[in-house]
Amino acid sequence: MTTHGGFEPVFCTIVPPHVLDRLAQHEDPALAGPARETLERDAYERTHRRLTTVIGAPLLEAPVVSDKPQRTIYDAKHKQDLPGKKVRSEGSDPGKDATVNRAYAGLGATFELYLNAFNRHSIDGEGLPLNASVHYDVNYDNAFWNGEQMVFGDGDGELFLDFTIPVDVIGHELTHGVTQYTANLTYFGQSGALNESISDVFGSLIKQYTLGQTAADADWLIGAGLLAPRVSGVALRSMKAPGTAYDDDALGKDPQPATMDDFVRTGSDNGGVHINSGIPNHAFYLVADALGGHAWEKAGQIWYDVLTGGEIKKDALFTDFATLTVAAAKARFGDGGEELQAVEKAWEQVGVPTTRDSST
Length: 360
Hints:
alpha+beta
């Protein structure tokens, strides 16, 4: 991967640091141990990502733009060396390892949504090969996009299961790559929360597209199926009802706000990027719910137009993004239509003004 146009790829994980921080302090070593090891590994990978950005990754041969993905799955064999042993390549038949098969399918589902809904060829728009490593480390409680490839842990079996299970997790992480190649939103504060929210939005759309669901059919959960049976919760996040995804003795309570009234000011998690993302997440859900049908066709198209339109600044605030979605709805669907009304009403409901000089 090269850092085209000054892009600054960030290290992004699906399980928020605040969840792992809490688990790392648990009195039960079976819960605290994997969380601490995951935090340590994440810190290393974050530093590695930063160094690779500064030094520059090796130049890769230009990919061939095609309507077919180019997927390669590697088995890390519970070690930390990436990518590991190649176990499946594009076009090969499924093997006996369900994790490998799910990763392969998830990369394909992501490619398919972006191609068929938005005419985008892979995450960079130019046919970038999609690589993933599974069975990373031991009891590793996370999945991440490191700027070059996907990496999946198997979970600890106590709180988290195999991270290839939810296809929206795969779509979420790969969408960080899309953002990396387009808006390149700074991973801090409100712009970081927008970065996270965009990944949730398109991760959910990838799941809905794969299942053939309408907005009314969808559960609007991120990471459903990831939590182990002992956990009191249904997913990592809920776009329909932020703050309700889990309420568990070990994990704590889902801290996401649904509106600006409950915006969380914190110095942790890069200024609460995984927390305050609940606000733009909820706005998208409200737009999709109001418009009905397949959410990628209208609501998703508006969000994609903003992400790729070149007008959003790297340090955009919620109100900047909201204002651009209003403009995008007008440009694509016309002034005065249901699409524009849905967008304006959604941002109003979550307390985000759609012009910079508006008052909250």
